[in-house]
Amino acid sequence: MRPLATSLLITSILLTGCSDNEVGDVSLGLFTTKDIKIETFTDPVVTGVTCHISHVEGNLDLSDPSDMSISCRQAGPITLAMINTINRSKSGEVVFKTSKSILWKNLKIRRIWDEKNKTLIYLSYSTKETEGSAKHSMTTVPLWGSPVWDQLEKPQSPQ
Q1: SS3 content of the chain, % helix, strand, coil (to 5)
Q2: Do the Cβ atoms of 97 and 73 come closer than 8 Å?
Q3: In the 8-state DSSP scheme, what is residue 45?
Q4: Is the pLDDT at 52 greater than 80, yes or no?
Q5: pLDDT confidence bin for 34, thresholds 50/70/90
Q6: How far apart are CA 110 and CA 116, in angstroms?
Q7: What DSSP element (H or E) covers 107?
Q8: Overall average pLDDT of the 18-42 stretch
């Protein structure tokens, strides 16, 4: 093996170690080097939302598959101050990012606000097309039934 390829392989193996956020690791079989990793993260602004992401990780590959899944739920209080702080643009903002290869492929999660339905949308996606497809997954956290729902219904007083 060439020195550069050996170096890249060693770096890849070192970078695929367990994440502090890893809560699950499922092997895809005895004769494969791929595993399904399950990670958790808390939204950095809307701290009452916890998300779980599953994605395939190839322990000896230079690039991991782009398939992923996401599920987010309200796991704590969500306040009006949190909702007022989030990015309200149509493209939202990146709240989580992890590398999926040495060469520019990332798994990203964006939070998007659906004003009409008072719902937080979390979109996970790969930044590189795979076989002509931009892999993605989506989940929502509706605020219905939470105290912030009623606060959003009331007209805000000018400050």
Answers
A1: 15, 40, 40
A2: no
A3: S
A4: yes
A5: confident
A6: 18
A7: strand 106-114
A8: 79
